[in-house]
Here is the input.
Amino acid sequence: MKILVTGGAGFIGSHVTRLLCDQDHTVTVIDNLSSGHQEAVDKRADFIQADLLDQKKLEQILPGHDGVIHMASLIEVGESVKKPVEFVENNILGTAKLLEAMRKTGVKKIIFSSSACVYGKPTKIPITEEDSLGVQENPYGITKVTMEQFCILYNQLFNFDVVILRYFNPYGPGELHIPETHAIPNFIGAALSKKPLPLYWKGEQVRDFIYIDDLAKAHVLPLNLGGLHIYNVGTETGVKVIDVVKKIFEIVGYEVAMDDKGERKGDVAELVASAQKIKKELGWQTNTSLREGLEKTIEFFRSRPSAI
Here is the structure.
């Protein structure tokens, strides 16, 4: 198949692009490089620097593609609180323009990168796809809910084939956000540079950490699905953040001081996926243990001191 990957120069997008190329799909990557890295894009893919807000450009690029994997969005929660209009324009308006460009060019298949944040504060654990979407704590969450709704609307109005993937906590090699707000790369960076490790809530939060290669597979398996499908993508195993820190210390062979950041507004105590639906319907499964994934991620950051 010929697949257009939006945000394909980013952390998750670059891994998905590589997997698509490995499976002999023809891939076009578009990214505005506001946070992505062109060197991360697999050389087998065609790269076009473009912005989703440029609908005419999208209409020039899309013809001939069989589907779109849509991962381009602003993701930093704290920044969304400071810049809500920018997040609305980039994430929501960008998605609307992408969907319109797809409609006009006859490309009616989209796999959308959503987030477990759409559930808000969960009422039970593990979280299933049938659970209601919760009240959002920040503009980023609101944009993800709205982006999902636009995709669902285009399924209903224009018969688009839509797959929505609600990620839990991805991690792995290649995560190079600036600024970096995700826990594991910040923990590893602090440990390798022997600086105080930033920790909220004393690490008592429970999260479902999924390794990037396992997450990437979830984008490729549903390429032939028709209709509307929503899947959680997680390991179904909750881990306390402080236990992740301890595993990192075990792997590097020493400990560093903790920088107690106290509480953080908007955090929920526990997020753990039920992934039974994607396992049963697509045969998806995780293959990487937390320790193995941390070892590979630590090795990546050791090999790139400038990334720490």
